[in-house]
Amino acid sequence: MKISESIINNLFMEVDSLTYRLRNIKQCFKNTSNLKLRERLIYEKNIIFERVKEINNIATFLSKRSAEKIKFSSLLKEKSKRTLLEAKTEINLFFI
Fold first, then answer.
1. Beta-carbon neighbour count of residue 5 at 10 Å?
2. Selection from 63, 59, 80 nearest residue 71 by Cα
3. How far, in Å, CA of 22 to CA of 17, rounded?
4. What does the alpha-carbon distance between residue 95 and residue 50 come to, in Å, rounded to a whole number?
5. Buried b vs exposed e over 74-86: b needs ≥16 C-beta within 10 Å?
6. What residues have CB less than 8 Å from 77, skipping those under 6 apart?
7. What are phi and psi of 68, to 5 degrees?
């Protein structure tokens, strides 16, 4: 495994865990009426969303650098893009 593949693999695992955390935040937000907790959940969701955007930018950069047809960076880019889409479609949840 090349060094860049190892980095991409680590970023992929991070996106995966951030995706699950976003889903947990959504569930907690639905189940609580505590305003302070809701504020913290919104704040945490925004931080996670920004981190996934950073990873998506890194994946795009790495994907452009590579000459291979099948690349791990493309998989990372797709995973982060889907996570961003999932978070964007649920954005109305946080403004109830």
1. 13
2. 63
3. 9
4. 18
5. bebbebbeebbee
6. 56, 59, 60, 63
7. -70, 150
Residue owning tokens 């609580």: 32
- The pLDDT tens digits of the residues spanning 47-77 come to 999 999 999 998 888 888 776 666 778 888 8
Q: What is the pTM of this model?
A: 0.78
Return the HEC string of the chain. CCHHHHHHHHHHHHHHHHHHHHHHHHHHHHHCCCHHHHHHHHHHHHHHHHHHHHHHHHHHHHHHHCCCCCCHHHHHHHHHHHHHHHHHHCHHHHHC
Q: Which of 88, 16, 83 is nearest to 8 (CA)?
A: 16
> Which residue in 21, 4, 18, 27 sits closest to 54, CA to CA?
18
